[in-house]
Amino acid sequence: MLGPPGVGKGTQAERIASEFGIAHISTGDMFREAVAAGTELGKTAREYMAAGALVPDEIVVGMVEERLGRDDTRKGFLLDGFPRTIAQAEALERLLQTLGRPVTAVVDLRADEELLITRLSGRRVCASCGATYHVQNKPPKQDGVCDVCGGEVRQREDDRPEAIRERLREYAAKTAALTEHYSRLELLESIDASGTPEEVFGLVSEALIRRAGVGTHQVAG
Ligand code: AP5
Question: How far is the CA of 90 from the centre of ligand 1 (A)?
Answer without folding.
Answer: 22
